[in-house]
Amino acid sequence: MKNRGNLMMKVYSLEYTNRYDLMIKGQVERRMRESIIMVGSLWYTAWVNAGNQI
After folding, report:
1. Could you tell me which residues are beta bridge partners of residue 7?
2. Which residues are CB-contacts of 11 (< 8 A; sequence separation ≥ 6)?
3. Which residues contact 1 (CB under 8 A, 6 or more apart)?
4. Residue 2 in 3-state DSSP?
């Protein structure tokens, strides 16, 4: 546990987080990359629908 301001937060060791990442086969990074592409696509679609073109 680590005190962060007024909150006590559970902090995992680097070894644990690395093993967990291996176990889920990089799912967190993959999902973050997918979300970046999705948000960019939403903004582009809104831009095009507003009447702008490339």
Report:
1. 4
2. 1, 2
3. 8, 9, 10, 11
4. strand
Pairing between strand 2-4 and 7-9? antiparallel
Bridge partners, residue 3, by sequence? 8
Give first-to-last CA distance, the chain, whole Å. 51
Mean pLDDT of the region 41-48: 95
- Give the integer Cα–Cα distance in Å for 30 and 24: 11
- pLDDT tens, 2-39? 888 899 999 999 999 999 999 999 999 999 999 999 99
List all residues 6 or more positions away from 2 whose beta carbon is below 8 Å from its beta carbon. 8, 9, 10, 11
Please state the length of the chain.
Answer: 54
